[in-house]
Structures are given as C-alpha cells and as structure tokens.
User: Fold Alpha-galactosidase from Hydrogenoanaerobacterium saccharovorans.
Amino acid sequence: MHNNILLSSFTLGDLRIDYLKNENNQVGMLLLPAGLQNTVFINKSEIDSLVHVKVMGDAYATGFASGSSLRCSSTTQSLQYLSQHTVKTQNKLEIITALAGDNGIAVDHHIVLQENLKAVVCFAVVKNKGEKDVTIEMITSFSLGNLTPYAEDEAVNQMILHTIQSTWAAEGKMLSQSVEQLNFETSWAAHGMRSIRFGQAGSLPVKGYFPFAALEDKINHVTWAAQIECASSWQMEYTRYGDGICMSGGLADREFGHWYKNLKTGEEFATPHAIVTAAMGDVEEACRNIYSYLNTTISSVDGEEDLPIVFNEFCTTWCNPNIENIKKIVDAIKGKGFQYFVIDGGWYKTESGNWEDDLGDWNASPKLFPNGLKEAADYIRKHGMIPGLWFEFENVGIHSALSKRKDWVLTRDDNIIKSGKRIFLDMENPEVLEYLNQKVVKQLKDNGFGYIKVDYNETIGIGCDGYESLGEGVRRKVLATQRFFKKMTEEIPHLIVENCASGGNRLEPSMLKVSSMTSFSDAHECPEIPVIAANVGRLIPAKQAQIWAVLRAGDSPQRLYYSLAATMLGRICISGDVPELSSEQWNIVAQAISFYNLAKPVIKTGDLYITRENVSSYRKLTGYQATVRMCCEKNQALVVVHNFTNEDTIKISLGADANPQICSCFGVEKDQIEIKQNVLHIKPPVHFWGCAILLNINM
Assistant:
C-alpha cells in the first residue's frame, strides 16, 4: 500500500476530480462519477503523474520500457507539486495545477469542467525555464492512473479495454478485450512495465483507429474514456506496473510518431486537447458522454440549424460531371426538398481524362463546362438550391503543373513525398496559400458557390522536412490546413464546409470544429451502411454526419426503404440515378424526406442506443440492428431498424416508464408494430429490410 493523501477535490455536475499527493510531493488525479458512492481506494497504487514528459537524454522507466513506452521517464518522476488555482466563469471551472521538475522543466496541467456536461477537457503546457535548450520527446494531453480505484486489488476478470477500429469503408468498429485476453495482468512481483500503445502516424487521423480509448470496470459499472482532438499523428496508451492500470494519450511520441519538439529557454508548448469522462455505466454510456460534449460545444453555422438535405452527383456521374448532366439532374430533383447540390470530382479534368491525375490546377474543363462553372452554379440557384463544389486542394496529381514545384510541395529526406499518384502541397508556404486563395476561395466567390466539399484521399505518413522532427512537420502542416479552412469561412460568410477524407478518415473533433458537416464513409451503396453509420454515431454528432443513400433506377421499394432508413442515423445525402427514378420511387423518397423533417429535433439532440443481434461480418451481414435515439427535450424517440437475416420478432425496449405512442412511420405500417409493456415488437417481413419509427415518450 502507498501513503497518498487527498490534495483537493472538485465537483461540477456529474463529475468529481480528486487530486492526490504522495510523500514525495508528486501529484496525480482520479476522475470519478459524482453520483457513485462506492469506496475509493486511493492507496492501492503509486501516484500516476498528472502529466508524463520525456526529455531527450532522460532515463527510461525501469522494467523493459525502452522501445515500448516513454512514460515514467526521469523527468516525469522529478515533477513536484507547486500550486493549484482555479478560474471560474458563469458555467465553467478551470483547474490549473503547476508542477516543476529537473532541467528547468515546468508544466501546467489544465482541466476544464463545464456545467451540464459529462466530460471534461484536459491538456498540458510544458515550459522550459532552464538555462539550456531542451528537446521534448513525449508529453501527454491527459493521464488517468489507479484504474480501477473501486477495487482494492488488481481487479481480476473485471476490466475491459475498448478501442474503436477504423478502415476505409468500414469505420468505427468497437473492439472490446479483457485484461486477461490481452495478457495485461500484473506480474507476480509487480515488475516489468506492460504497455499497449496504439494510434496512427500521418495526416489521416482515423486510419486504423479512432483517437479514442476506454477502460471499463464491469463490476462497479464505471467506464473511463477519452478522445483526442488531433488531426495529425496521435497515440493512446494503456500501461501497468502494479495493481492499477493507467490510461493516457496525446501527440504520437518519438518512438511511435517520429515526433520531438525543441524548446529554447523561455519557450512553451501546449498539447492538443483531450475530452475525458468517467461514466456510470458501460462503454456505450461513456461514448454518449463524449458525444454530448461535442454536440453541445460544436455550434452549427448559420443556415445549418435545420439540417438541410444534400444531393451529391458523385454516384450519378462517377466523376464525369458536365453542364448537360448537371442540368438534367437539377431538373429531376428541383422542388423535392433538397437544399444543397454538390458537383463532385472531375469538373477540372484535362484531355488525360483522369480526375486524380489532374488534381491541383483547378481550371474548369472547357469541354465539360464551355461557359464556365458559373452557368452550372446559376442554374442550381435558379432552382432553389445552394451550389457546392468539390476540391482536394491539399494534394496535387502527377499531371498538375504544381507537381514539379519542389519548393511548393512536401519532402522527406529531401525527396518529394508521393502516395500513389498524389503529392502534398505545403500548406504553410505563403505562395501556396495565395495560389489556393485564387483557385479555391476566389473561384467559389466568383461563381456563386455556397458550399465546398473538401476531400483528402492520402496520408503524408510519418512526417515531412522543415522542422526538428518529421512528426513536428506533419503536425504543423495539418494545423496550417485547419487555418485555411477557417480562412475560407472568413472570406465567404455562411460558406458550408464539408469534411471528407476518403469518407471517414478525418472523423475527429478538431476537424469537426472547422467544418459544417462530415462524410461518414465511402461505403456509398453497401448493405453495411446502417452498421457503419451507427458505429460512427457513437462519437460523431448526427447533426454533422452525412449518411448517403444511393438510389438506383432498378431499386425495389424494399431496397429504397432499406437505404433511406439508414440516413435517419444522421444527415440525408442522396445520390444515384435520380433522373431515371419512377414516380413510385420518388414517392418513397418523398416519404423519407417528410419523415426526416419530423425527426430532425431528435436527430440533432438525442442520445444513441445500439442493439445488435448476431452481427459479426460487415460484408456478410446476419442478424439485425436496431438503434434508438432518445431526446429528452422533445420527449421523443427515433427508432431505426435494419433486418439482415433475422427470422424472429425484433424486440426494442424503451425504458420502464416510456409509455411510447407512435407519431410517424417510414417503411413500416403502424399495424405492423405492437407495443407491449414499453417494448416495441416488430416482425420483419423479409431479409434486408429497413424502417424508421418516431415515437412520443415519457422521459
């Protein structure tokens, strides 16, 4: 046992923070659900420092850490408590804890609590107050130790580690593994650091994993979870060297992400923010806490409050837009409830005919648009929609004149970085920024576009030249991209910005904050769309998540209901063979839009609950999925059901006192739904069938 004492405690809303100090004046913290009265064992583990910092030249932690973890370095071990103060505003409390260590290193640890929110923001600022320059090889945005504090021992068969995996067109699959399955138990002598470090290196922050981690105590029903706000290289890490488990995260460190940062005397560096929670419940409840934080703190731009419907012609023309087919599509969808019409890739193609090879010059094709893009934009506006235009302005193709400008593009080891046929512009270069101001911002302005879809289809990788480390290079270039996003909206007020990266490869908070909406996936017309959309919906606000329904002339009513029901998991985006749809098919689309308009308040603010039965493979779906989005403000619930191969009645519980009343249905008739003791009973008529139900309920 250890001799830890309570330094201070703060409670705001549903969260409590206990700061602990040991006899060596080191400080750690416990983040706890305020309403849980279970005994907390503060002395079962050594103090885990509020911040972990590794300085070049430090000793690594003992117990075989070198090569697998930079935590618990000699600088971290030297950090001593100096002071703590708070800054209060009307509904916020910021706690700043000052630490000082060897080599003149000082760290301010920040936690921001906000009333009525169930997650906190955590970050650190490291300062060089010494007489010599230092190089930081790792610094955490957050670190939680002594997990679980509700068990006096090592909590055998009690702890579950959760990650959210992500690949192209299969975003957001949660993986849950026990400590025992991961061989993460402590040793007989509590010796030997265990470390599980994961994340990504590059400029696609959701390539491999979401920047998310969670640790669940299934006996005491508490889950700790965190999400990093970082669009460049990041990492999460679970470590163990005793009974308690530590969970931390932030920028990818030198070993994992090729990052280190020089600090001259008097300089400081702030980490990315982390959103952190302690939930009374399982990992799904922890996700709802983080989701609620993002949904509340990310504001909609003007005109977006009503979640307008998008049409994108990508799956209609397949990167072959021209003035004739754009007008034909507009004529087919005008007056049917669409507010945005997006012209996707290919409008700039040269005689090469390849939309990827021609990235970068951004001149409208005189063959495809002989009178320029303004004719198309004007035609779209004339018929009541806001025109949008696709760009992938951070990259250039091999046929672009810019591909030869080595002074304008990113290099590594003095070689131009190439990923497939793509080359990356230097978003910090003033000449590049002026070029993009002319080619992107001015082109949008001059032609009357009010919407830009920003795509990004490759990753820089481990980093680029220009700074002290490759990882610092990619961090700085990604921040420059985000500044350009902000510049676009400053130059064009009310501009709608869509964040896309081969679908969902940039689904992380810092990109959500500079965008109006985001593409959920490139799984445009796959049966697994509802599963991916629900997965993404754990952490991405539905008011920003653009869910596609690609409609084909040969689609049966069953297929249309299946596709359109999935869009109720976020924002509706339509593509496909709209000029060829029959009146019967358009009637089903109209039903979907009418239902969506009724369900918007629930989509915007409701909490998501996912039920799945026998769903394993995404490509060969079996069983069924049912989601419920509960909205306390409106006393309503939105139920979306997708049956894959299930033969039995689907039962959906709505809570003991819900008293549900059917308000509206899509894809199912009221007499096909039976309500027994607050449980919906739905018998799917066929395989691969979808529906949505809006309910009035007691909350």
In short: The mean pLDDT is 96. The domain at 609-696 is CATH 2.60.40 (Immunoglobulin-like). The longest helix spans residues 583-605. The radius of gyration is 26 Å.
